[in-house]
């Protein structure tokens, strides 16, 4: 099973309520847990995972974390318009997407800078350096070190 989209669950209060209700309903229908610890864990784990799969859905790979879900939905609508050869709608959606993406990126960067200032003020350097790396756009490249023999 793919991993559930926990970030979406944390951000969306309505989704949290739906997930809680789904888990409660599944536990109510489960009845008494078996006395064996392994069987109990298996049934408990199945309830949690199946509820997450049904309600939350799988996590998507986030290439641009600043894009909001409604902005991504506009991008998907634009793709549908492209498939239907509707150039007028596609051009309109491109403009809407550009404006929203610009706004989303600005909000994301402002929030990141605020968190950075807070982390530095509280002397939490780990999250601060992570935010600085994210802001600078530099990626850590892992390269193997080449060893050369001394004789040639």
How would you characterize the overall build of this protein?
With 152 residues, the chain is mainly alpha-helical. The chain folds into 2 domains: 6-55, no CATH class; 69-136. Helix content is 69%, strand content 0%. It contains 6 helices and no strands. It has helices at residues 6-11, 13-30, 37-55, 69-83, 87-121, 125-136. α2 runs antiparallel to α3 (37-55) and α4 (69-83) packs antiparallel against α5. The model has no long low-confidence stretch (mean pLDDT 84).
Helix content: 55-70%
Number of domains: 2
* Number of discrete helical segments: 6
Distance between the termini: 51 Å
Radius of gyration: 23 Å
SSE string, helix = H, strand = E? HHHHHH
Structural class: mainly alpha
Largest sheet, if any? none
Report the strand count. 0
Beta-strand fraction estimate = under 5%
- pLDDT averaged residue by residue: 84
Assembly annotation: single chain
Unreliable spans: none
Identify the overall geometry.
extended
Features:
2 domains; mainly alpha; extended
Please outline the helices and strands.
Layout: H1 6-11, H2 13-30, H3 37-55, H4 69-83, H5 87-121, H6 125-136
């Amino acid at each position: 099973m793919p991993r559930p989209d926990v970030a979406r669950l944390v951000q969306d209060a309505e989704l949290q309520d739906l997930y809680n209700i789904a888990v409660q309903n599944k536990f109510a229908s489960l009845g008494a847990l078996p006395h064996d610890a392994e069987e109990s864990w298996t049934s408990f784990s199945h309830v949690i995972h199946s509820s997450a799969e049904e309600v939350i859905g799988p996590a998507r790979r986030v290439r641009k974390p600043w894009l909001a879900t409604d902005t991504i939905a506009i991008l998907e609508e634009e793709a549908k318009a492209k498939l239907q050869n509707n150039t007028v709608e596609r051009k309109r959606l491109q403009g809407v997407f550009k404006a929203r993406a610009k706004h989303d990126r600005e909000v994301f960067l402002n929030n990141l800078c605020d968190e950075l200032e807070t982390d530095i003020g509280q002397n939490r350097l780990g999250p601060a350096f992570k935010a600085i790396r994210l802001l600078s756009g530099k990626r850590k490249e892992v390269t193997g070190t080449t060893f050369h023999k001394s004789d040639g």
